[in-house]
Design goal:
- The protein is 39% helix and 14% strand.
- The chain has one domain: Cytochrome Bc1 Complex, Chain D, domain 2 (Orthogonal Bundle), CATH 1.10.760.10.
- The protein is α+β, with helices and mostly antiparallel strands.
- The strands form 2 sheets. Strands 1-2 form a two-stranded antiparallel sheet.
- The radius of gyration is 19 Å and the shape is globular.
- The chain is built from 7 helices and 4 strands; from the N terminus they run H-H-H-H-E-E-H-H-E-E-H.
Length: 187
Amino acid sequence: MKFAKIILSSLSILGSITLSASAEAPAAYATCSACHQPTGLGIPGAFPPLAGSEWVNGPVENLIRIQLRGLMGEIVVKGVKYNSVMPPNATMSDDQIAEVLTYVRNEWGNKGSAVTPDMVKALRSEVGKPMLTVADLKDPNEVVLELKSGEFVETVDVDSDRSLPWYAVAFFGVCLVPVALSAASKK
């Protein structure tokens, strides 16, 4: 048991591991796909892509709030300006919203953290407020907000496109694992 704790704590140094989304979209994504398309590529000039979007991969709070309140006005996604309206989808359950947003954050090459029903529930008070504009959202390139124990906690954004250098992986495999095994076998 202690060995497992040592290995798990060592793995946490490498960052969180995101499981890939299922190949099949949740049924609730059908509403989203009308504009954002089943491919997540959006409609050029009209509706922005979800695939590779800094907004999708950024703060979870942004996506939940957009889902609950909608979004209008100009937004820049992947360097391209869009100016349209996304209506709110607050009639979906917390579970459905969490499932759809987790799917979107892990499909088409996106690598975002999961969205939980508790995260959605924590922001349900947003329902009924005026539609959002980009000015109401967190900058997706500066800060990532995660929900922990019912509160959003500020964390540092890490460039998810960069992988660990080979020597860091080698150090972990060659040095840390044998040390952990040795320590576990002595107890």
